[in-house]
């Protein structure tokens, strides 16, 4: 499996984990202020989602940069 495919799959699973953490956080709201660890539960997948999303966002730009760099070397 290629690196890009692994990152995309990880991103999908992280989105599911983040959604479940947000649902857990919201389910504690009727009983008052939720514990801090419930709030932080969503933070970890969110940070990883941000990193994998930025990686996937930059992939086309990196490929274009590589293409122009290779074209410049061949001249």
UniProtKB/TrEMBL annotation:
> Which keywords label this protein?
Membrane, Transmembrane, Transmembrane helix
Transmembrane stretches in the record are 12-31, 37-61
Designated name of the protein:
Transmembrane protein
Q: What species is given as this protein's source?
A: Allosphingosinicella deserti
Taxonomically, what lineage is the organism?
Bacteria, Pseudomonadati, Pseudomonadota, Alphaproteobacteria, Sphingomonadales
